Amino acid sequence: MQKLLGTLPxxxxxxxxxxxxxxxxxLFKINGKLHKLGDPPWKGKGKKT
Length: 49
Description:
By secondary structure, the protein is mainly alpha-helical. It has helices at residues 2-7, 10-38. The protein is rod-shaped.
């Protein structure tokens, strides 16, 4: 594993770490906003269907 990480430039490694957090977080936030805007009013927050 150290041999693989030694061949990657440090900025590329850091970019991968940041993107691996940022992409799922942004998808989570976008999904929440879409549900907030698109769910019908009769669908309550606490109800599971």
